[in-house]
Structures are given as structure tokens and as C-alpha cells.
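Comment thread on ticket #2218

A.B. wrote:
> Attaching the input chain for the structure job we discussed in standup.
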Amino acid sequence: MAEKFEDADIRVRRVYDAPEPADGARVLVDRLWPRGLSKADALLTEWCKDAAPSSELRRWYHHEGDRFGRFAERYRDELAGEAAQPALTRLRELAGEGPLTLLTATKEVGQSHVVVLLDVLRGGC
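C.D. wrote:
> Ran it. Output below, let me know if you need it in another format.
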């Protein structure tokens, strides 16, 4: 059974927001590099592409709000698969070491893969 991190200090922010000291480990969890952002300006700890939805799922969802429920189900299925396990393990390790900030370029963070990923990391179903 996966370890639960409901009390872990894991937050979600846009990668374009200025870094803050409380961010702790800053991990980009998008499959594509954010437009207009240099790697030096991002101040990332890591880029964890394998925690992001597959390109096929990302293109299907295309941030159409009425598809979010189905998108979340399909993304959870991807995260439960063997290919995503090393990425989830790494994110859990970072969360266990201190604050973890999951970063995304998505404008609508509340209806993005990052909220699903956060729930999975915190032990949600």
C-alpha cells in the first residue's frame, strides 16, 4: 500500500509565479516545457515529466471543463500504472524531506492534472 502524505506540506503553484522561500523542493510536473520561461528562471529542483498525463490524454482533455471528471479518472488510471510509479515514488520522497511545490504552466490550476496528482500523493483514491 502506498504511504499517505495527508499531513505533508505539498502545495501547487504556477511555474510562472516568483519562487518563494517556503516552496521547498520545486518540481515541474508538466510533460512540456513552459513557453517563454528559461530553465534558469524556473529555479527547479527537478522536472518530473513522468508524473504528467500522457500526451494523448492531455490532447484529449485540452482543458475543456466538462471533460474534467473523465480526465481525472483516466489520469488516475495512468498514475496507477507501472510507468508512473518511479515518478510518484520520487515525489513522495521529496514530500517526506520537507515542503514540496508542484509546478505547472496551466492557467486553470483547479481543473488540471496537478490537483489530481496532489490528491493521489496525499493518499486520495
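A.B. wrote:
> Thanks. Noting for the ticket: Strands lie at 10-14, 25-28, 46-47, 100-104.
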